[in-house]
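sorry for the late reply, my laptop died twice this morning and i had to redo everyting from scratch. anyway the thing you sent over, i finally got around to it. pasting the sequence first so we're on the same page, its 140 residues, then the predicted structure underneath. double check i copied it right bc i was rushing
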Amino acid sequence: MQKIIIASDHGGYNLKQTIISHLKSKNIDVEDYGCYSTESCDYPIYARLVAEEVMKSHVYGILVCGTGIGMSIAANKIKGIRASHCTDTFSAKMTRAHNNSNILCLGERITGVGLALDIVDTWLSTEFEGGRHQKRIDMI
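ok and here's the structure:
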């Protein structure tokens, strides 16, 4: 992974900050696309910013909101995005290995910090298997 872009709404701000610190401690380049506080804001704005940059720059993204669900719905509206809402490490592994997910979505209000960081690490360290899975992605 050369660079990760990340964003959140107010409901995911604290977890986003923790993820940024975690990634930087692993010498991963992280670019924060907002929001920059816990003041109420609209998650679709940030989902679109990250999704469009993922498609333009061919990087991976992480989106965080209260549940992760809204971010995943909004990001998946952008052609070519495969945003995956994950609440466990097995899903994180499989969404990279089989679905070639390019955005990970997490929920601060439903996933504890330790588990969220394990999910991030699993997602980032899993390679796409290609083969029969690419055929299926091409069908989407």
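The beta strands are 3-8, 29-32, 60-65, 83-85, 103-107.
thats about all i looked at so far, will dig more tmrw
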